[in-house]
Structures are given as structure tokens and as C-alpha cells.
What we know:
Elements: E1 3-11, H1 18-35, E2 38-46, H2 53-63, E3 67-72, H3 78-88, E4 93-96, H4 107-116, E5 122-127, H5 135-151, E6 160-167, H6 168-175, H7 184-190, E7 195-200, H8 214-228, H9 231-261, H10 268-300, E8 308-311
Parallel strand pairs: 1-2, 1-4, 2-3, 5-7
Antiparallel strand pairs: 3-8, 4-6, 5-6
This protein binds uridine-5'-diphosphate (UDP) and magnesium ion.
Amino acid sequence: MCKLISIIVPCYNESQAIPCFYEAITAQSELMTGKYNVKFEYVFIDDGSKDNTLQVIKSYASQDERITYVAFSRNFGKEAAMYAGLQQAAGDYIAIMDADLQDPPYMLSSMYESIVNDGYDCAATRRVNRHGEPPVRSFFARCFYKIINKISHTDIVDGARDYRLMTRQMVDAILDMGEYNRFSKGIFGWVGFNTKWLEFENTERVAGETKWSFWGLFLYSLDGITAFSTMPLAIASIIGLLFCAIAFIIILVIIAKTLIWGDRVAGYPSLVCIIFLIAGVQTFCIGILGQYLAKTYLETKKRPIYIVKEINN
Ligand code: UDP
Ligand code: MG
């Protein structure tokens, strides 16, 4: 029986990149249709683009009936776009791919073979280097992966891209995770299944520019931590305990000193330092608590992950 492969493409202001992407993916599809018994569908998600991305997608959709598109009412972010794509995709095998060709289409063949011939549930990709990326960004990215893997039970792979091919079964498991605060790199790991990791060298995007600012990535990393670890809460409690212990020791020392040498008023500067330190630590810990409370607050509202403005078929 002929299997269907769905390619999900989240697009935000990608009108320049889509033509190159479409050319590359159709070439790859032809190659694979000739080689294996497969058909393709492309699910384009227009994530509230401000340029004419939607028009470009529509013009391709009018010529190619394999194209499905969903247009959001505003920019909901790549996570929401991927979720919408997964919901929309009808394939037996489902892939997620960026529109900027940073995810090389030629890899689809080996991904498909890993699943069909080697029995994996998922074939995912990771970059072995970060060439062409600002060094500061790479440094912080590495720190983030080190930290999150220490404090979370979910395996979150350094350099992993969202580019992956999955079986229907795995996608259904992901769709069951309807949380609002979505961090896909964690969700993919959390659902389990056998994943084969394929490595490739980083390539620069064909056209347009990255949507990620340093600050945006930093906030995203905090989302990831709160979504997949409660360790920061434990750390806050431990810091609290530690400070109580230190305070207790200092009290004993002061009592002893007063009994031996009598009460001499001194140490105003050190007192000020201590007050500042404790206030800082307290605010920091309340901040951690606030992060989790905020996420819980958003989650309890049960707002939709995205809103559709337009959809074909
Ligand atoms: N993207 C999206 N919504 C957003 C931001 C990005 O759908 O709010 C899409 C974007 O169009 C691209 C993919 O997500 O197809 C990856 O974005 P980008 O290339 O900017 O990220 P990078 O590759 O630099 O990590
Ligand atoms: Mg990119």
C-alpha cells in the first residue's frame, strides 16, 4: 500500500524563502516517489506573517493539490505552528521542516529508511556545529543544554533541530500533549519512542533572516526549563535552608562573643551587606516561584494554542 508522507512547514515572513523551499522539496519528493512506494502532502502554516507569505503559499496551492495551508489570525510562534501542522497532517509518516532550507531535504531519504527498514519510530536531526552563528549565542545555547539536562529527567539533545520524521503513532502521542506552554524539544523526548539521530553540518538560511533575537531565545529557554523541570523550586528551598543554617551559626557566634567580650556596637557595613544579600536571594526565589505560577496561570485559562483565520480544503 502506498504510504503518505506529510511535510509540515511553519512559515513566518518567509515569502522569499518559500520558492526555493518548494523547488527543493518537490525535487526530493520526486526522487523518493520513484524510489519507494510513497506519496507526499505539504502542510504550510502561515504563522501570521506580515509580508505576502500567505499569497505565495496560495499561489503554489492553486497549482499543486498536495498543498494544504492553515493561516493563523496573528503570530502565535513556531511551537503553535508545529502543533497546528501536526493536527492537520494526514500522513503515515510526518516530518517537520523549516522553510529556510536550513533543514536539508536530501536527509528525508535516510530518515525514511531508518523508520521503515531499521524499525525506528522517529528519525531526528542534530547539528554537529554551529558555524555561521554568533559565538555568544552558541555559548549560551551550550550552557542551556548542560543545565536543562542536569535538572530535567527528559533528555533534551544539544544541537537537535525540530527537523524530524515521525510515525503516526508518535505524532498521536504528541498531539495528546495539549499544553499551552509548548517546548517541542522536550515534548519529543518526553513521549519516548526509539529515535535515530542523524547528524549534519549547519547551513545558512537561503533567504530572509532568523526570527530569533538573543532575548527571545533566552525567554524561550526559561519556558523550556519551567516546562520540563521543577528543580529551580527545589533549589530555591535549598538556598532558603542554607541561609537559615548560616544565620543560626552567626547568632551562636554573636551570643558567645557578647558573653565573653561584652556588647560592642560594631559592624554596620557588614549588616547592610547582609540585608542586601538576603533581600536579593529572597526576590530571586520569589521570582522562580512567580515563573511557575505564571505558567500555571496561563495553563489554567485553557486558551487555544492558535486561532485559524483561513484554511483550504
Ligand atoms: N517560524 C514560525 N513562527 C515564528 C518564528 C519562526 O513559524 O514566530 C518559522 C520560520 O518561518 C522558519 C522556522 O520557524 O520556517 C525557523 O525559524 P528561524 O529560521 O527564524 O529560526 P532559526 O533557524 O534561526 O533557529
Ligand atoms: Mg532557520
